Amino acid sequence: MARPGPSLFRSRWWPLAALLILAAALRLSTLDLQSFWYDEAYVPVHALHPSLIATLRSVVHRENTPPLWYVLIWGWSRLFGTDEVALRLPSALAGIATVAFAWGIGMELTGKRAAIATAALVAFNPLFGWYSQEARAYGLFVALIALAMWCWLRADAQPTPHRLGAFAASGAAALATHYFAVFLLAPMCLWLLRPRRAGSRRTAADDWAIAAGAPPPAGAKDRRSSPPAGAFAASAAIGLVGLALIPLALAQGGHGTQWIGAWALASRLETIPQYYLTGYSGAPLGHAIELLVALEIIAAVGYGLWRVLTPRESEAALLSLGLAACGVLLPLALALLGADYLAPRNAVAAMIPLTAGITVIAAGRRTGRVGLALVGVIAVTFAALSVDVDLSPRLQRGDWRGLARAIGHPVRSRAITTVELGAAPLEYYLPPLRNLRRGTVVRVSEIDETGYAPLLTGAGQPPAPGFHLVRRRDINGMLLYRFLAPTPRVVSEAQLRAHVIAEGRPEVLVTGEKE
């Protein structure tokens, strides 16, 4: 009688299956836990329209990223709607797929130990989890860069037309999702186009040593051959997509990126590792938690280096960490030259090769079980931070949904003041609201001032004659001041705009009638 095949838990794939299940649980179980925040609410309120043409026109005039994600989310929203779960689900699915791609990256770099370690850290890292639950392009961007890196490694090992075509397709898709993909794809293409060794006795690790100035090892062949023709075609295909996107980038002109230049560059550079260590919202946890995670990573990497990497592991670590450095240092160089778009979240995809570089070292073959255990400690810490976000409102996105519930649907004519980025969430959760145009007036009997700490001087004071404070509420850090007048009164846009309670360009939303 034939023996039954191996069960899942006896197969070589069970660690990946387990990590995918855990990653899915982290991402899918809490998709509607947090309300939409600024950028997310902007998508259904301003970016998505009934027609695809109108949506693409909005991408040109209102957004600052390429169109692929908006095309996909437009079609998705036509089928599943525009609530939190519907619009975030594609990012969650992309985040789950990223774990599988990370596994593939580790396998291509050094084998199964690196595959398990890389997939585990990607599955639980709170930064990747955050963008897997956001209705924006970042989750897809990270997934496509991970896929492109995997395809790139496969094409470099065996440059067949199929593998090079897969790299070209995934790289082009990544570039059509986010402009910062170019800082990772350009070095990938240049690496494929390098002269390749003709003999089999000299390894890629030898190439790295020779490039650093060391003589070729004894007996190693030094014949060089031209890059495969397919490498030129794949790189050219990605380059053509980049060229095609230039007119769009110029037309967009960096819409909504003024805040980047207003944020000190040194502070942004400090925030990039902080995001990786404790997640997008981890700042309230304090530097002690950041230091704890950093020390865990340093201990794992230090142990791997102490045990001495094999030549293949050395090459893989240098390749991965070099790619991650390009993802940060190239936009930094542009920022220093005056083209400053280096927001920490734009560098999120560079954390994929960074993770691969860390795990190749920490889980090297000579580290044994200790190396995998140290990686496991990091993964458990990452998982705890990810769960903490679900349990702690202070680590979550601003509770605009809760604020909207506290405001309630209007029973009288009303004006709502908020900071610039607060308009879209309130318009989403409290339809129908409209922006009060500059220089106009409105007749209202209720004024609701919304924002968050730190408050400006004068918060709680009546914004106009005849109004008095009747309510103050704190909804998970979102603040509401409600003022009422006995009868509707005429209030100017300038009066309302001058009396916001938090920093930021003010916005005024109204339900009242124009005078």
Detailed description of the structure:
- With 515 residues, this protein is α+β, with helices and mostly antiparallel strands.
- The chain folds into two domains: 12-202 and 225-395, no CATH class; 400-514, no CATH class.
- The protein contains 21 helices and nine strands.
- It has helices spanning 14-28, 38-47, 52-62, 68-80, 84-109, 112-124, 126-131, 138-157, 161-175, 182-192, 204-211, 229-252, 258-262, 265-278, 287-306, 311-336, 351-362, 368-391, 400-407, 423-429, 493-497; strands spanning 196-197, 224-225, 414-419, 434-435, 441-452, 468-475, 478-492, 506-510, 513-514.
- The strands form two sheets. Strands 3, 4, 5, 6, 7, 8 and 9 form a seven-stranded mixed beta sheet that branches.
- Strand 6 (468-475) and strand 7 (478-492) form a beta hairpin.
- Helix 3 (52-62) packs across helix 12 and helix 9 (161-175) packs parallel to helix 12 (229-252).
- The longest helix has 26 residues, at 84-109.
- The termini are far apart.
